[in-house]
């Protein structure tokens, strides 16, 4: 067994400094790290002052491990911070959202419009009996009403629980039950891949289960035929539109619940990650300002995440709106009506800041450069990535083909549980390395530790932990305090274990190595799937790769790789290609990491938020019946993979 918790196999020495102009104009300058180190709590107090507080806090933090409270005694309203403040301070005419529906319909919503729409919705919710502390389930397509519904809940001090519109009726029901929601806000449907899809029937199906839901508020988006039960269903336009556009908001305690967001755990039951108000908003606003370098007067900001994920909460709704951003939201899929859709939108709206996920970046690589090259992307000045490790090759492609070598890239590491970005370059400070999230943000303490919880030195791999409480940390797992402690605070004494492997390179930059559950053990070496995947994708013909460890009599586990070829490359290159790829991996990171088997596939199994489901690939690699695949974005993909393998399997 190796003495390290993870092998540190690959090495990257390219670095990219921001341009001098970017450095000179950056929101966050290099002295910010020192400022935060000198007095961490004073630093966070300063960031909390980005918000409007109706009453100031009297204590910064109360830390009873693992339970934190921030800005105690302070009172504020999340919706006021996102909306009223801008209107009162004369920014009501600024565009908050440019909305583009998949069919091409558009809306332009100013801050004044958004305030009025949220007030109407809040008045409607009040009429339905929603009050502080209640839970409201939101099950919507990516349309402005989704954000409006969230902000209306927040305005009343009620908590939203957004359930991604791609989840099934069963998933929706279990989330409604766990949070004990009393209202569901949904739509008849939305547009995806060129056609309307229905949402309301899934709500009807879910509500056949036992719940305390009294009403279902339904936005008419597609106009499709929708079954209505008038004893509880209400059309949004009938109830909301007639309300007053004014609503005096109350100010709530800093620790008032803002939302619950469910995330899958190792057991079947999803975890209700619970966030409160003051600390969460502070860190969402600060990170959005510092990491995305937002210039409110000039930038058009676009985060492509759906509102059903934490990224949509922190970086479509709360962070950007608090900072007065003008942003684009888009309802549909990236390949409708063409694979160039998102690039056309960048050109049309002159998007300057783009925040997306490696899964989309690799998909774009797979489709080929001709799509981005058809649009004028020169408005872009900063690019962001989140959700998975971004392999150096995809990072370089993002930089060159999308950013035209002109945009700093911020690879941001964080989780639903952390609420906001924790590890990321600062775009006007950091000399970035392709594939590294670089270092903890000011005010955040991250370490990489070994099996015993001791910090590993530079050049070593281990487990990523967070050693000090931070403002936007989850306050618990809804209704399950013991699960909260056990899941996050029991692996290493006194620190939060994120579940991710990471390594420090020789300069101390942090490289994320994926979930530790995905680590492979080959002849006693613990090898991260991320490193082997990155090596594969660094070969010209590979667009995407997923690697798993499969049982192996000789070595404990053998490395099995599933690869997707880049656009325009024929898969018929067969055995020669497989040999070349194996040699390539050996050359990049060493013979120990050479895949035992490489399979060329057309698609990879992914969750709806784009994460590869390695568990299912392990089943294939070990010739087992494929396990529970209900969380797959595309239910057919495993069938396609298994069928493809009958012909495409290659081994040497
Ligand atoms: O494994 C890490 C990966 O995504 C996990 C968190 O997933 P979720 O709660 O869905 O939130 C995603 C959006 C914040 C992490 O434990 N992850 C997220 N960002 C990165 C990442 N892995 C590597 N690099 C990242 N930048």
Q: Please report which band the strand proportion falls in: under 5%, 5-15%, 15-25%, 25-35%, 35-45% or over 45%.
A: 15-25%
Instruction: Please give the largest β-sheet.
Output: 8 strands, mixed
Helix count from the secondary structure assignment: 20
| Global outline | globular
Give a verbal description of the structure.
- With 652 residues, this protein is α/β, with parallel strands linked by helices.
- Among the domains are: 111-250, Rossmann fold, CATH 3.40.50; 539-644, ANL, C-terminal domain (GMP Synthetase, Chain A, domain 3, 2-Layer Sandwich), CATH 3.30.300.30.
- It contains 20 helices and 31 strands.
- Helix 13 (358-367) crosses helix 15 (392-402).
- Adenosine-5'-monophosphate-propyl ester binds at residues 263, 310-311, 386-389, 411-416, 437, 498-500, 512, 515, 609.
- One of its GO terms (cellular component) is cytosol.
- Its EC number is 6.2.1.1.
- It catalyses: acetate + ATP + CoA = acetyl-CoA + AMP + diphosphate.
- It is an enzyme of class 6 (ligase).
Feature tags:
AMP binding, 8-stranded mixed beta sheet, single chain, 652 residues, binds adenosine-5'-monophosphate-propyl ester, Rossmann fold, ACAS_N, GMP Synthetase, Chain A, domain 3, disordered C terminus, 7-stranded mixed beta sheet, ATP-binding
List the helices and strands and how they pair.
Layout: H1 20-25, H2 31-38, H3 40-48, E1 59-64, E2 67-72, E3 75-76, H4 78-88, E4 95-100, E5 106-110, H5 111-127, E6 135-139, H6 144-156, E7 159-162, H7 169-179, E8 183-187, E9 189-192, E10 195-198, H8 200-206, E11 215-219, E12 233-235, H9 236-239, E13 252-253, E14 257-263, E15 271-276, H10 278-292, E16 300-303, H11 310-322, E17 326-330, H12 341-349, E18 353-356, H13 358-367, H14 370-373, E19 382-386, H15 392-402, E20 409-412, E21 446-449, E22 461-466, E23 476-477, H16 481-489, E24 496-504, E25 510-515, E26 520-522, E27 525-527, H17 529-537, E28 542-552, E29 556-565, H18 574-589, E30 597-600, H19 614-621, H20 637-648, E31 649-651
Parallel strand pairs: 4-17, 6-7, 6-8, 7-14, 8-11, 11-12, 16-17, 16-18, 18-19, 19-20, 29-30
Antiparallel strand pairs: 1-2, 3-13, 4-5, 9-10, 14-15, 15-23, 21-22, 22-24, 24-25, 26-27, 28-29, 30-31
Helix pairs in contact: 2-3, 4-5, 4-6, 4-11, 5-6, 7-8, 10-11, 13-15, 17-18
Bound molecules: adenosine-5'-monophosphate-propyl ester.
Keywords: Acetylation, ATP-binding, Ligase, Magnesium, Metal-binding, Nucleotide-binding
Protein name: Acetyl-coenzyme A synthetase
InterPro entries: Ac_CoA_lig, ACAS_N, AMP-bd_C, AMP-bd_C_sf, AMP-dep_synth/lig_dom, ANL_N_sf
